[in-house]
From TrEMBL:
NCBIfam families: TAT_signal_seq
Pfam families xref list: Isochorismatase (PF00857)
Lineage: Bacteria, Pseudomonadati, Bacteroidota, Chitinophagia, Chitinophagales
Name of the protein in question: Isochorismatase family protein
InterPro entries documented for this protein: Isochorismatase-like_dom, Isochorismatase-like_sf, TAT_signal, TAT_signal_bac_arc
Domain of life: Bacteria
Organism: Niabella pedocola
Residues in Isochorismatase-like domain copies: 77-265
Length: 292
C-alpha cells in the first residue's frame, strides 16, 4: 500500500510540474537565453494538486497557481487548430464566431505585429490544399497497423457490424455540407506555416528552434485533445511546453452542459491538471514586446 501511495505522489508531482523544472529556473524564468533577447512575458495557470502546510490534503483544498514566464520570442509560436469556416451545430458555430471576432482576431494580429510566429494546423485535407503547406513528412504509403485488433473489428464490419452506432437519419445532410476550409478571417498571412500532422508540426518547430506552443482553436473537448497536432500529443509525446489561450477556444456542449459550458471548462481544467497550462489572449497581448 505504501508503494502505491508513493507512486501516486510521484505522479502528482510530475503532472503538476508539467516538466517545468527541466526548462525553467526556480523563479519561473528561463535561464536558457540571453537576457537582452526579445521575450514574451506571460502568466501560465495550472491546477496545483498540492496544499499549503497545515492544510488537509483533500481535493477541496487544491486550486490554481500562476507562474511568471519570460520566453524568448524566437522559441514560441501560436498554433491555430481547426479554425474552419463552418460548424454543423448552430450554437457551437455561434460561439466560435464570437471567440474569433472578440478574442482570436486581436491575438493573431498582435502576434503578427510583434513577430511571434503563427502556425496553422487545419487538418490534413485543408492543409494540403494550401500553398503554405510545409510538406515536411514524406509520403511512404499507407501506415502499417498491427494485426490486432483485426481490420474487420477496427471497421466494425462483417461479424462486428452489430457493435456499430446506428446510422443517423441526417447523415446524408451532414455529408453534403461544403468541405472544410480556413475561416475567412483566419487565413494564413504571408509565409505563415501550414501543417497537416503532429509529426510535421514537430519537424517545423525543430527547424525553427521552437520550444513553447500557445494553442487556440476548436473544439476544446475534441480536436485540441484528439488531434495528433493537438495539445496532449505535442506536450506528452513530443515534449513541448504548451499553454492554451482559454478565451480563444470553445467546446461542443450537450443539452446538459449548454448553459454552463462545462464541457469547455472541464477540458481546459483537464489540461491544467495534467501537465499543460492556460492563460488569456489579453495576457499574451500584454506580454508581447512593443512594436518598433
Amino acid at each position: 500500500m505504501e508503494e502505491k501511495e508513493n507512486s501516486r505522489r510521484a505522479f502528482l508531482k510530475k503532472s503538476s510540474a508539467g516538466g517545468l523544472g527541466a526548462i525553467l529556473g526556480a523563479n519561473g524564468i528561463s535561464p536558457l537565453f540571453n537576457r537582452a533577447e526579445t521575450t514574451l512575458s506571460i502568466h501560465p495557470r495550472y491546477h496545483r494538486w498540492y496544499v499549503d502546510p497545515g492544510q488537509d490534503w483533500v481535493e477541496t483544498n487544491t486550486g490554481y497557481a500562476t507562474l511568471n514566464w519570460a520566453i524568448p520570442l524566437s522559441q514560441v509560436a501560436l498554433v491555430l487548430v481547426d479554425v474552419w469556416q463552418r460548424h454543423y451545430i448552430r450554437d457551437t458555430e455561434a460561439r466560435i464566431e464570437a471567440v474569433i471576432n472578440n478574442n482570436l482576431l486581436p491575438l493573431v494580429s498582435a502576434c503578427r505585429n510583434s513577430g511571434l510566429q503563427v502556425i496553422h494546423a487545419p487538418s490534413p485535407p485543408v492543409a494540403q490544399r494550401h500553398p503554405n503547406w510545409v510538406n515536411l513528412v514524406p509520403d511512404t504509403g499507407a501506415s502499417q497497423k498491427d494485426s490486432w485488433p483485426s481490420a474487420a473489428f477496427r471497421n466494425l464490419s462483417g461479424a462486428y457490424q452489430a457493435y456499430r452506432r446506428p446510422q443517423e437519419p441526417r447523415d446524408a445532410e451532414l455529408k453534403s455540407l461544403p468541405a472544410h476550409s480556413f475561416h475567412p478571417k483566419m487565413t494564413p498571412a504571408g509565409r505563415e506555416a501550414v501543417v497537416a500532422t503532429g509529426e510535421e508540426l514537430h519537424r517545423y518547430c525543430k527547424q525553427k528552434g521552437i520550444l513553447f506552443l500557445l494553442y487556440a482553436g476548436f473544439n476544446t473537448n475534441a480536436c485540441l485533445i484528439t488531434r495528433d497536432y493537438g495539445v496532449l500529443q505535442m506536450c506528452n509525446h513530443y515534449g513541448y511546453q504548451v499553454v492554451i489561450a482559454r478565451d480563444c477556444t470553445t467546446g461542443m456542449e450537450s443539452k446538459d452542459t449548454h448553459s454552463s459550458l462545462s464541457q469547455t471548462k472541464g477540458a481546459i481544467l483537464f489540461f491544467e491538471m495534467f501537465g499543460q497550462y492556460s492563460t488569456t489572449s489579453r495576457d499574451i497581448i500584454k506580454g508581447l514586446p512593443p512594436v518598433s
